[in-house]
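Re: the 232-residue chain
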Amino acid sequence: MTRHTLIRIIIALLILAGITLAIINRDLIKPEHIRQSVQQMGVLAPLIFMLLFAITAVLAIPATVMVITGGLLFGPWLGTFYNVTGATLGALLAFVISRYMASAWASRMIEQKAGERMKRVIAGVEKEGWRFVAFTRLVPVIPYFALNYVMGLTRVPLSHYAVATYIALIPSIFAFTYLADAGRQAVNQGEGFAGKIVLGIAMVGLIAAIPAWLRLRRQKRQQALNDGQEPL
């Protein structure tokens, strides 16, 4: 057994062990519990939070849990920055594991979870590069956890993947972070925050409408190409 093979096996076992522990302790993986634990870290709280977000992205823990936690802990602005940074770090970590350390394992795992959708994502990235990476972040094609590993199986450059992921995650993460903070203020301070909650819900609704708009735009663009016209 080569050293490289041994490293791959160890990484795969660590990830599986982490996922198993996350399932066993799923009752503890809640925004309020995580908030209380991270808050005790003092000045290190932002760093601990971003590292924790990165780890959860590798272990198939829903990103929404961490996004809400970021809003509760740091508010809408810093919360968005820490959320997006942590999510991108996790996406990069899964990408590197998939591409350089455990590609065979990642391919088998994703095939079970994503099937034909995985193949369409890989084909899209091979054709359009970072543009399709950004599209998949704005339009949920497959689960966030699986998507991070799928990208490692493509030929998209790591730098393009990182930048496209970071920028494309901002809209949805900001909306949910803002909503989480507005909900916290409403609970803690009572009246006067209904407007913020309504605004947060409106932003989430707007984000939810983006996939339909992007799909329509892509369909029109493809139709224009098929008709031999210059796409808008």
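The longest helix spans residues 63-101.
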